Amino acid sequence: MRLDGFGLFVEDMGRMIRFYRDVLGFEIRESEDAKNVYLIKDDTLFMLYGRKDFEKMTGRRYEYLRGLNGHFEIALYVDRFEEVDAQYARALAAGARGVLAPENEPWGQRTCYIADPEGNLIEIGSWNRAFRDGGA
Question: Which domain holds residue 42?
């Protein structure tokens, strides 16, 4: 079995598409009014599903957190420490919510956190070397 991608169940599809496309640079495969939207980032499939549509499909009701979602994170990697700061500033300027400003961690990584419009945590981090050179 191979990991194909991951998905989020979203309340406001258009807003979330615009965030991941315009703020974080994900490539979108469908129109903004699709019920299920596939986005691509560095050859990884990222899916957005409308909550109500998913509930209808599965015949179940689910509970969703409000505010910051501390159940998981989406991790994005940049090659250099300076890029962590630049991407954090760019994301905030584009409307992301700041959670943790860039800082150097005791384990050698520079990292920061933002949140998407529905409160999902996104880490932007670096080990100050290219990803393919053992960055992550």
Answer: 5-58
